[in-house]
Amino acid sequence: MKMERRFFQATLGLLALFLSLQPVFGQRVVDKMVATVNAGVRTDLITYSDLLWQLALQPNTPIDNPTSEDLNKALHLLIDQHLILQEAEKLPTLEPTPKEISDARDALARNFASQPEFQARLQKVGLTSEKLDQILEQRLKMEKYLDFRFRNFVVISEKEIADYYRESFVPRYRARYPERIVPKLEEVSARIERNLTESRIESDTDTFLDTARERAEIVMLSPV
Question: 34 phi and psi, to 5 degrees?
Fold first, then answer.
């Protein structure tokens, strides 16, 4: 029954996208379906345009005739994002504000050489301002969810900080700056704690995604 339900959901999703892509007389549809992601909540569709939009938002990534490697990296990243988003949207309190979306757009644009370059990349792949805001809203939901699920529960002990300082920070600092005096533990303790926190969150997120991929039904519809 579970597999039948998932197949039925996937079929409905594919049918909906197919109908939405039906051309008006004289038009030609250039987009294509690449994959579906079903984690038991709904079926999400990933199209070729989604891959191009992902690449366009990554600085220094070619968007003219993208390589299969870049497209596949974008695809797997989008699959992971959908798995996180499907969980995040169970918590309506994580809804980003308009200001947060606006701030995220400005921060993203600053990753590029200039505002005109940023806008040119968006136009080249057909990424509208409305769609960009939707993507940023989803990214913010994912960030809020990961913070809610993992960051709030990360506790780094003083022993962990001291061990990292002794075993990792000091040897690396001496190797990189042999002519300098190594900073004292209290001078870099906060930085080490931040690094250990981010590392813990990354590890917990990887574990979460491994489990989510195993439970989800991910169907590849077209090679990229």
Answer: -110, -40
Residue 108: which of 86, 95, 127 has the closest Cα?
A: 127
Q: Does domain 2-149 have CATH number 3.10.450?
A: no
User: CA 184: distance to chain centroid?
Assistant: 36
Sequence-separated (6 or more) residues with CB below 8 Å from residue 53: 125, 127, 131, 135
Helix, coil or strand: residue 219: strand
CA distances (Å), 3 to each of 48, 174, 180, in order? 26, 57, 62
What is the mean pLDDT of the segment spanning 167-186?
A: 97
Cβ distance 136 to 105 under 8 Å? Answer: yes
Start-to-end CA distance of the chain, whole Å, equals 32
Q: Where are the domains of the chain?
A: 2-149, 155-202
Give 20-76 pLDDT, tens digit per residue: 333 333 333 358 999 999 866 688 999 999 999 999 999 999 999 999 999 999 999
CA–CA separation, 13 and 6 (whole Å): 10
Q: What are the tens digits of pLDDT across the range 103-148?
A: 999 999 999 999 999 999 999 999 999 999 999 999 999 999 999 9
Tokens of 9: 């959901």
Structure tokens at 88: 């995040």
Task: State pTM to two decimals.
Answer: 0.77
CA atoms within 13 A on the CB side of 172: 6
Q: What CA–CA distance (Å, rounded) separates 199 from 86?
A: 24
